[in-house]
Design brief:
Elements lengths: L37 H21 L9 E6 L5 H12 L3 E5 L13 H11 L2 E6 L4 H8 L4 E6 L5 H15 L6 E5 L6 H10 L5 E5 L8 H8 L5 E4 L11 E4 L10 H7 L7 H4 L7 E3 L20 H19 L4
Helix pairs in contact: 1-10, 2-10, 3-4, 5-6, 5-10
The structure holds N-carbamoyl-L-aspartate.
The site of N-carbamoyl-L-aspartate has 11 residues, from helix 2 and helix 6.
């Protein structure tokens, strides 16, 4: 029987037999949208579209049979965590779910690098959501296996932005030439931080609508301005709604407010109703990363322009594509 030697343990586990080690995405960490260019995005969307067609045709298939994903969530999640589980299982792989770190050794005081090194001994890829900005980059520094950032505090949520952009591409057929209005908590909302950066690779116009103290961070505005993208900040939606092609709404991120009174005062700042929708283009799409709290009245759900439930389904295909790609199978 072959002996297990220290050298044969996990060090080479990035290179299992049969994988496409030449694929540009093989073994890649997904930490920030800044790592992508347009060509790569087109490729990801092509693979995601193929995943959609395969799910439609056969439901699930064995592309990642035998592969294991560790889903490590230090913050609450419904869509992100379950879409990764369903993506992995539809591809024939399996999942170690750690959705409640209070039942893991984290409560014994284990550090993030140690938890990551533990999970990579058992899994081929790790999806991480953590309250601190930079946590995924830190995890990637220690891990030999791919780390996928599923939200690092108020930093980024790159795979949400990929699925958001994929939604726009699939629903409107293009991204260039569109006017995109982001509304809500643009200060703490990591999904808008990633999406605004990703959109700056295209020829778009961006409007930001938020209360003054929930404005998109200056650092992100500067990055986008450096790409020559027109951006404008407003406190009222109505003047820009008629020319908007994509209205992207976010909730006020209660968990990051130190003062609960401030959150109370801001939480109902904006609400999309059926009346609001009468002022929007017929071809506009209304998006939301979810969960929604106050921002979109449920009566709007029946409007065909309400794309937020379709948007979450697109997320499954994007995540199938990303898992297959970083594991060298696409
Ligand atoms: C978002 C998040 O976690 O940042 N949710 C998600 O992943 N779909 C948005 C939010 O929580 O408001």
């Amino acid at each position: 029987m072959p002996k297990i030697t220290p050298r044969s343990l996990s060090t080479n586990s990035h290179l299992p037999f049969g994988d496409m080690q030449n694929s540009p995405f093989y073994g890649l960490d997904i930490i920030t949208v800044k790592q992508f260019d347009r060509e790569q995005l087109t490729y990801i969307f092509e693979v995601a579209h193929e995943m959609y067609e395969m799910v439609l045709r056969v439901g699930s298939f064995d592309l990642l049979k035998g592969k294991i994903l560790a889903n490590l969530f230090y913050q609450p999640s419904t869509r992100t965590s379950s879409s990764y589980t369903s993506a992995m299982e539809r591809l024939g792989g399996s999942v170690i779910p750690i959705n409640n770190v209070s039942y893991s050794s984290v409560t014994k005081g284990e550090s993030l690098p140690d938890t990551i090194r533990t999970l990579e001994a058992y899994a081929d890829v790790i999806v991480l959501r953590h309250p601190e900005v930079g946590s995924s980059a830190l995890a990637a520094k220690y891990a030999k296996k791919p780390i996928i950032n599923a939200g690092d505090g108020i930093g980024e949520h790159p795979t949400q932005a990929l699925l958001d952009l994929f939604t726009i591409q699939e629903e409107l057929g293009r991204v260039d030439g569109l006017t995109i209005t982001m509304m809500g908590d643009l200060k703490y909302g990591r999904t808008v931080h990633s999406l605004a950066r990703l959109l700056s690779l295209y020829n778009v116009r961006l409007y930001y609508v938020s209360p003054e103290n929930l404005c998109i961070p200056a650092e992100i505005q500067d990055e986008i301005a450096a790409k020559g993208i027109p951006q404008e900040y407003l406190t009222d939606l109505m003047s820009v709604l008629p020319e908007t092609d994509v209205l992207y709404v976010t909730r006020v991120q209660q968990e990051y407010f130190e003062d609960p009174d401030q959150h109370e005062a801001l939480k109902g700042s904006y609400m999309i109703t059926t009346e609001t929708m009468t002022r929007a283009k017929n071809e506009m799409i209304l998006m939301h990363p979810m969960p929604r709290v106050w921002e979109i009245d449920m009566a709007v759900d029946d409007d065909p322009r309400a794309a937020y439930f379709r948007q979450m389904e697109y997320g499954q295909y994007i995540r199938m594509a990303l898992l297959a790609m970083v594991l060298g199978k696409a």
